[in-house]
Structures are given as C-alpha cells and as structure tokens.
Write a structure and sequence with these properties.
Radius of gyration: 39 Å
Strand content: 5-15%
Order of helices and strands: HHEHEHEEHEHHEHHEHEHHEHEEEH
Structural class: alpha/beta
Amino acid sequence: MTVARLPLLLSVLALLAAACGSSERPTVLAASDEAAEEPPVLVVAADAEAGSDTPADAAPADAGAVDEPPSQEVEVASPPLPPLVIFDTDMGPDIDDALALAMLHGYQTQGTIELAAVTLSRNSPTGAAFADAINTFYGRPDVPIGIQRSSPAVFDDRASYVSLAATWPNDVGDQPLAEGVAVQRQVLAEAEAADRSVIIVQTGFSGNLAQLVDSGPDAASPKTGIELIRDTVSVLSIMAGSTELGIVEFNIEHDIGAARNLLASWPVPLVLSPFELGNALHYPYASIQRDFGWAERHPVVEAYEFQDLGWHEDAPPFYDMRSWDLTSVLQAVEPDGGYFSMSDPGTVVVDEAGRTTFTPGAGRHVVLDDGARMPPDRRQRAIDRMIELVAARP
C-alpha cells in the first residue's frame, strides 16, 4: 500500500469506530474514484519487502515459464543373452538321453538357455531323426543336427525307441546330415562373433568332442578347436565313467580312445557325473503316467514306454529310469543350485582298459559325488526339478 492512501484508510477506520457507539449503520462515502475502485484491504506477509506494492501471494510475471534441463536420451542396457548349449548325445541305447533333451527344452522355455545344436556321437540317422522329432515337438525344428559317421559304436536302432521317429514330424531325411564336429565348430564360431557363452553337455561317447579338440581351421573359423573352446565354452558337463566302482562304464566302453583323448586335452573346466550318481537317482515312471496329460501324444512318453529294458533292476514291465544323463544337464545349467556335492579340482584319467580314476590336485576336472551319500531331501529336490523340466509345456 502506498503512503498516499494512508489518510483514506484512517478516515474509514474513524467512521467505523463512531458507528460502534451508534444504533444506526453509517454510510461510508468514497473520498475519490480511486478509493471506490480499490477497497482498503491490508495484507501483511512475512516475506514481503518493505514498501512493495506486490501482494505476497502474487505470482511472478514469468510464473508460466519452468526451467527444465535439456532432454537427454537414456540408454537402457539390454539383459544378457542366455548361454548357448550344445547337446552331444548317443540318443538311442537308453531313454535318459531323450529325457535330458526334454529337460533342455524346459530350460529354454523358462529363458535359462538356448539350445544351439544337437550332435550324435554315433552314426545314426535314425537317432538324429528322433532328436529332431523332439525339437520339432517343442516348437524348435531348426535346431541344427549332426552325427559322427566314424563312431565305432553300433546299435540296432530298429529295436530302440528312436525308431519312433517315423511317427513324428521331423525333416532329418530331407537333407544330408552334417558331421557333428562341423556343427559344433559352427556354433562356437557364431557364439564368438556374437559374444555368447557356450555350455556343452555330453551324455554319450566322446568322439565328437575329441574331434573338436583336434580340429583345425575351416570355413567356420580360422581358429583351431582348442582356441574356439577356450574363447567360448564356459564348461563341459559329461556323464561318463565310474570313479568308485571300478567298472568300465558304457559311455567310455564304446569309444575308449576318444574318451582318453578328450579328458587329456580338454582346455576348460570339466564336470564329470559318474555312473554311481545317476544310478542312485531314479526318474519315476509314475511321472510319465501322471504329468503329461496336457499333450494328446508326447514323443518322450511314447519313447519311455516303447521297450522293456530287462537289465534294469525293477523291469519289467516298466521301470524308474536311472537319471544318468539328467544329472549332467542339471549340473551344467544350474551349477549353483546345490543339487550335488562336488570334489575339489583334480584330474580324471581313463586307462587303456576303460577304467576311470580321479586324482585330486592340480587339474581342471571336478567329479560329482556319489548319489548314494546324498541326503534324502536333497536327492528328492533334484528329482523333482528334473520332473518339472521334463514335463514342462512347450
């Protein structure tokens, strides 16, 4: 308020005071046009400057203008891609290879891994066709397939569940099958170019991987096999041998030379799941009967029920399958899952007769513990996880 208006305010206050002692309401006349237009209201604000005509709550002239920092584009990092998996298998002699492949599809459906290739460590187009039938059933028909034509392991596939491939969609017969080592080198070369990590799971004989170790430059990569493995592979998880029972285990027996070469030359960490571990963990036939009702037909269910394997302790007519190959998949993909105990690092050696020994100390090999010594609750947790993955919907 300006000083010029102060006399007017005093006059108004005097009239109001006089009215308090009178019974009649006084009439207040404006002393000027300016006074009539602006009623005398006194506003006192604690932060108002002395002598200012601007009310304390008045907005500044530029109230509509808001200072904002210049816009900046924020880059959001993409989540890391899951590791690639090469599944090297003898698909056919026993059903645990098919269960292990179904496990890998369960992991991929969960986004944990990406199945990059399936390679057979024996010369079996029929086994390759059944592997492709499983991949196709799970909606992944383009997973590359390879075979080892030079494998010494020979079986009659007509008596095996892999003969069911003819009853399931697959396209293995539509083109020549590549050599397993060529498929593996192609995956590793592409993984290196894409900065992807690779896990290899071997549940059969060692021929493909022994050839990979010995391989030289080719059209896929100018690097040797050893160089490609060192640059891309995080771990090799294999089911082979028996470090405690003194037996010549099946996956060693049918290509002893390749197993010896692989174990002696493999350049990155290797986890061995011995015969005795998978022999103590049984995949229940009750799950095959109970957990696959969501599918009208399922290749793994039909394969499981295709043949009675009389050498299983609880056969016939059906049996709780030993989970040999499944243990290698579980350990490879979930190394921190706490399912199995693991030895200190050391070296696994296969002698000329095919017997396997493990020596703790310097080395890149570790061995999973004997399943018979697993606490019952931990054994059941591993089996439950296998069932969950094998029976998962695509």
